[in-house]
């Protein structure tokens, strides 16, 4: 077990406070090659004071143990200068290794043709196997519980068809109001598929009047109020619009206690916040890989099916030949014999060219822990919230929860006026953010490639707007 023994010192620059190590004994020194180390604000709430001084951002970047990973990605340029890229919640940046990996597959295809399924450097027949260990680490699962396949909404439909078993008495689905449209459409068409009316079968949990986030107690109250008729709870792990991170563990426990199945759309959570899907006993989950997992536009999705279900060969599901027993798959015989794990939900063979960039990104995630990413994320977003709070001449409010445990990388700014104008000015000044109708600008400092200087640059540009 790696361990660190250290003494803290405070290094002071004018009114800034930086935490550093005086003495350090470390069993795994390759993880820490810097004199600085991040300490989560929740552990040292009175020790780190954010300031608007450039010295603070410089010192934090100099001491960032994750700073080297910025060079692993292509940073877009605007007018010949590296952009301030704060849009990883929409599309993550391209890993530099992606091109090399794609070229390798193209080379193997050219050299081997169909024999590449077994002779390629990374054989295509078993290509999906190369992802399970990495994905399991990221989502807190066993390797048998995850598989990279299809795309997000396809996977969501497949999983809900497996776990939604409505009866005359128990048929309702709880969904958060304002969910991403794919979730809303998927749930709407699911209940229609079973001959039910959405207004009767779907229970939406909304923020209270005048509020923007959904209170945890209101989610639990909705579960209790519908306990005798609730068949499934399916919601986002992180809301795409506000950036609210839900307490998935508590929600899962509460919904399962009344007899419902529980699933999560983790599009905005995977690679963003620590997850423990197996320990939380979540029934199923799915995600995309093009946001915080940096795998390219429209890249392959992923699924989690808890081992209690994944090993159950009798569980009904829609099937394809790649979910059939790997040992007898090419006998082409009648009778579906599912793999005894999450791979049983695969429809077709791996879309290799759509998965290559995913592998390039996961190789980076293999080098770091979600704990390290989360600790830097808390500092980046804490710094951003502090600086945004110093801007008084623009009329906006933060609709993302401020407590660390209720948010991830994303911060959503709701503008009372001039929102689109501000967004356009940011673009002209080299900031790539995200606009959501009718009046929200979303930013997402990603710990793998964003810097504290990025946040300060955003602040300076906003401060100079008239």
Query: Count of helices?
Result: 15
Beta content comes to 15-25%
The CATH superfamily of the largest domain appears as Type I PLP-dependent aspartate aminotransferase-like (Major domain)
For the record, the CATH class of the largest domain is Alpha Beta
- Biggest sheet record: 7 strands, mixed
What's the shape? Answer: globular
Radius of gyration: 23 Å
**Helix/sheet category:** alpha/beta
Annotation, overall tally of beta strands: 17
Summarize the entry for a quick read.
The protein has 466 residues and is α/β, with parallel strands linked by helices. 32% of the residues lie in helices and 16% in strands. The strands form five sheets. It has a seven-stranded mixed beta sheet, with helices on both faces. A four-stranded antiparallel beta sheet has the order 13-14-17-16, covered by helices on one side.
Structure, explained:
- By secondary structure, this protein is of the alpha/beta class.
- The protein has two domains: 4-72 and 368-463, Aspartate Aminotransferase, domain 1; 103-365, Aspartate Aminotransferase, domain 2.
- It has helices at residues 54-62, 97-112, 116-119, 129-139, 152-163, 181-193, 198-201, 216-225, 248-257, 277-280, 307-310, 356-365, 370-389, 419-428, 452-463, and strands at residues 4-13, 16-26, 77-78, 81-82, 84-85, 146-148, 172-176, 202-205, 230-236, 261-265, 284-287, 302-305, 396-398, 411-415, 431-432, 434-436, 440-443.
- Helix 4 packs across helix 12.
- The longest helix is centred in the last third of the chain and has 20 residues, at 370-389.
- The termini are far apart.
